[in-house]
Amino acid sequence: MKSRADIDRASSVPPRKGDPMAKKQSDAVYRIIDVVGVSEKSWEDAGRIAVETAAGSLRDLRVAEITKMDMKVDNGKVTAFRTRVALSFKYEA
């Protein structure tokens, strides 16, 4: 179990360089939605399809996070790869 000192020290560590959430944000609100891409080739292809399809109707996509990967199985054979992606985009009031 972590001590209180360990928790305090971890919470005071500055964000890593290159971390998409590390940039200082101006006043803004972001919405996160889940989309699922499907591919007969790979999970990577399914994730790319999910992001590219969503980008056709959503503006200002910021972060795509893979949250789940699974496969469709028919008669004991993998027939499709499915990738669930949490997409973050700027919410416009």
How does this model look, in words?
- This protein is α+β, with helices and mostly antiparallel strands and 93 residues long.
- It has a domain at 28-90: Flavin-binding protein dodecin (Dodecin subunit-like, 2-Layer Sandwich), CATH 3.30.1660.
- Helices cover 23% and strands 41% of the residues.
- The protein contains 2 helices and 3 strands.
- The protein has helices spanning 4-11, 43-55, and strands spanning 30-39, 61-74, 77-90.
- The radius of gyration is 18 Å and the shape is elongated.
Could you name the ranges where pLDDT drops below 50 across 5 or more consecutive residues?
A: 7-13
Order of helical and strand elements: HEHEE
Average pLDDT level: 82
Q: What is Rg? A: 18 Å
Number of helical regions: 2
- CATH class placement of one domain: Alpha Beta
CATH topology of one domain: Dodecin subunit-like
Q: What is the first-to-last residue Cα distance?
A: 43 Å
Fraction of residues in helix: 10-25%
Class inferred from helices and paired strands: alpha+beta
If classified by CATH, what would the architecture of one domain be?
A: 2-Layer Sandwich
Largest β sheet strand count, sense and barrel closure = 3 strands, antiparallel
Strand tally: 3
Shape: elongated
Quote the beta fraction.
35-45%
Strand order of the largest sheet: 1-3-2
Say which CATH homologous superfamily of one domain is assigned. Answer: Flavin-binding protein dodecin
